[in-house]
Every structure is written in structure tokens, then in C-alpha cells.
Amino acid sequence: MSSDGGRAPLPVWVAAVHALSRLFGILAAGLILLSILVVCQMVFVRAVLGQSSIWQTEFVTYAVAGATFIGAPYILLTRGHVRVDLVPLMLGGPARRVLHLAGSAVALVFCAFFLYGSIPWWHEVWETGQTTSSIWRARLWIPYLAVPVGLALLCLQFIAEMYLVLTRREAAFGIVPEEPAS
């Protein structure tokens, strides 16, 4: 039931949201990989060289948190999030679609409220030029930007997913109805 099965191509805006979600997924994976390398470097600097770590712990904390937010749209796109399929599997097609759309709408509203609150929070940090209290003095607007950017794309990904289910281009929850045996 996806656009790959001979149906019309996806609308440009949906394809763009999917492409951005994939790009942000790659960026999130890169941040996690970079965090692993920084942790290894920190262990080497502290254990082998006997020096103190200055920036590593903060960098890893902000990078992993940022990866969580900017990687969330990719997780939604690929259905990589944890879910329980028991109720959707028990429901028929129309009820499954209603459940999917209702759940997606609730999640979208939550993300939209969170996004609405995160924009002024980020903007204040950017305007005031706040930095961390450590000797590294990282500018906080940089890691904090991952929150509104990730949430904005997550909202768009929810809208795209709901659109695809509403227009029957994708099956609700990715569960394709079984074909009757012939």
C-alpha cells in the first residue's frame, strides 16, 4: 500500500519531509558516532596521559541529546520506535486507520506544544549569548537548537504520515491487510 507499488509518486512536500528526516537521521547517527569517539579520547586523555577532561563530557551530553531530537523524525519515518501491535492487529482496516490517526494526532499536538515552548527558550539563550558554566564555555544556543529543529521536523513527519494514511497511500501502522486465500 505504499507509493512504490505502481501508484502515483509522493507529493513533493511529503518527499521533501522524508528526505529531510533521512538526512537528520544520518546527522543523528553521526553525532552518536562522534560521541563514542570523544568518550574514547576522554578515557585515553584521563587514563593514559593523566590529564583532566575539559570539554568532552559536556560535548557528549549535548551531542547525544541533540541526536535524540534531530533523529526522532527518522525513527518515526522508519517505524523504528517501540510500539505494541496487539490492538492494531486485532482491529480491522477502518478501525485501525482511526486508531492510527487518533494516536498520531495526539502525538502531533504534544510535539506542537513542546515546539511552541522550545522556540522562545532557544531564542532567549541565543539573544543573551549564554554559555555553559564550565571552562569550555560552550555557547548554549548551538546544542539547544536541536530541540526546536528536531520537533519542527517531527511535527512535519507526523503530518506527512497522517496524510499518507488518510489518502490510503500507506497502511495504518504499516500493517498491510491480508489478501483472501484463493
Structure described in brief:
With 182 residues, the chain is mostly helical.
Give a topology summary.
Blueprint: H1 12-48, H2 56-77, H3 86-90, H4 93-128, H5 141-144, H6 146-166
Report what the structure shows.
There is one protein chain. With 182 residues, this protein is mainly alpha-helical. Helix content is 69%, strand content 0%. The protein contains six helices and no strands. It has helices at 12-48, 56-77, 86-90, 93-128, 141-144, 146-166. Helix 1 (12-48) packs antiparallel against helix 6 (146-166) and helix 4 (93-128) runs antiparallel to helix 6. It starts with 11 loop residues before the first helix and ends in a 16-residue tail after the last helix. The model has no long low-confidence stretch (mean pLDDT 90).
Q: What's the number of helices?
A: 6
Taken from the alpha-carbon principal axes, the silhouette is elongated
Can you write the helix and strand succession as a string?
A: HHHHHH
Overall pLDDT level? 90
Strand content: under 5%
Rg over CA atoms, rounded to whole Å, is 21 Å
Total beta strand runs: 0
Distance between the termini: 20 Å
* Biggest sheet architecture: none
Low-confidence stretches: none
Helix content class:
55-70%
Structural class: mainly alpha
